[in-house]
Automatic annotation (TrEMBL):
Organism the protein comes from: Fontibacillus solani
Residue ranges constituting the YqgF/RNase H-like domain according to the UniProt record: 1-101
Keyword Cytoplasm: yes
Name assigned to this protein: Putative pre-16S rRNA nuclease
InterPro entries referenced in this protein's UniProt entry, alphabetically: RNaseH-like_sf, YqgF, YqgF/RNaseH-like_dom, YqgF/RNaseH-like_dom_sf
Amino acid sequence: MKILGLDYGDRRIGVALSDAFGWTAQGLEVIERRREGEEFDRIAYLVDQNAVEEVVVGLPKNMNGTIGPRGEICMAFADALKDRLQVPVILWDERLTTVSAHRTLIEADVSRKKRKGVVDKMAASLILQNYLDSKSIK
């Protein structure tokens, strides 16, 4: 069962895809948000082309666990995805995944310019991998 992971942002959406067994997450692409609604078409295409059975959207919570304005925007995005896709859409706590992605890229000595292009994809991979790991524990 393949699962798609999304790191939703105002300008870009990081996308990751699990393997068929749901064990590992790999960065797939970054969707640039240029025209309103275009990202939904691209996500629907990726779901269809990769036989995705579930979509996980990162939910940015405050450090105390509450949902702030950014989290509400992501929840609205997830609701809009649910209306357009024929697969379940799950919200997953993404606290510190972007920070972790930046730190990993800095430690790997990736230049600031190159980091900008891959940090969203890497954050999506971390969100998805955390979700996959939680499923394997149960």
